UniProtKB/TrEMBL annotation:
Keywords associated with the record: DNA-binding, Transcription, Transcription regulation
Ranges of the DNA-binding region feature: 36-55
Protein name: TetR/AcrR family transcriptional regulator
Keyword Disulfide bond in annotation: no
KW Cytoplasm (keyword) present: no
Biological source species: Streptomyces alfalfae
Coiled coil location: none
Domain HTH tetR-type: from-to ranges: 13-73
InterPro entries xref list: Homeodomain-like_sf (IPR009057), HTH-type_TetR-like_transc_reg (IPR050109), HTH_TetR (IPR001647)
Molecular function terms from GO: DNA-binding transcription factor activity; transcription cis-regulatory region binding
Pfam families, A to Z: TetR_N
Amino acid sequence: MTEPMGRRERKKAATRQKIADTAMRLFLDRGYDAVGIRDVAAEADVAVTTVFSHFASKEALVFERDDDFEQRLTRAVTDQPLIPALRQEIRAMVRHCTADSAAPVWHMIDGSPALRQYEESMRLRHAEALAAAIAAGPGPDRTTTACRTIARFVVDAYALAREAADPDAAVDETFLMIEAAWEAARPERATPGSGAA
């Protein structure tokens, strides 16, 4: 059970959200490249150092739910069966990111090489964190390669579905393949030279 946040933590979370909301408003109003960290700090009425204490880079301001998404994926590993639990999380993330209100944000991301590169590195980081959680999680042991492969497939399922004409159908279709791959990676199936004809 999660402990309720204390006053200091609530204030810190509120400041972080204020900075993120201010940055997104400025980016959408003026264009991502036209806004600097100093502009965000001034508009949010905080010091530049305060911005950097909450966000490691300008790109991170756009992906302010990055840590939350990663934690949701890694927490889903404790739910069993694994693949349906991950499918549910990916579907929720895709629905969040394909809402009408998200369209201008993705248009901005798609138009910025720096943001596209940041998103790609973020997805790789999510995949590595998910692979580690799968390897340490319940259920039969899988090889490191199997855990990393499935984690990459899961994170890529999100990216593919977000861009699909029917995101829900794309999640379902992709997870049929992920489930088949996960089943094929079961230790008793993955052992070479097991005597199968």
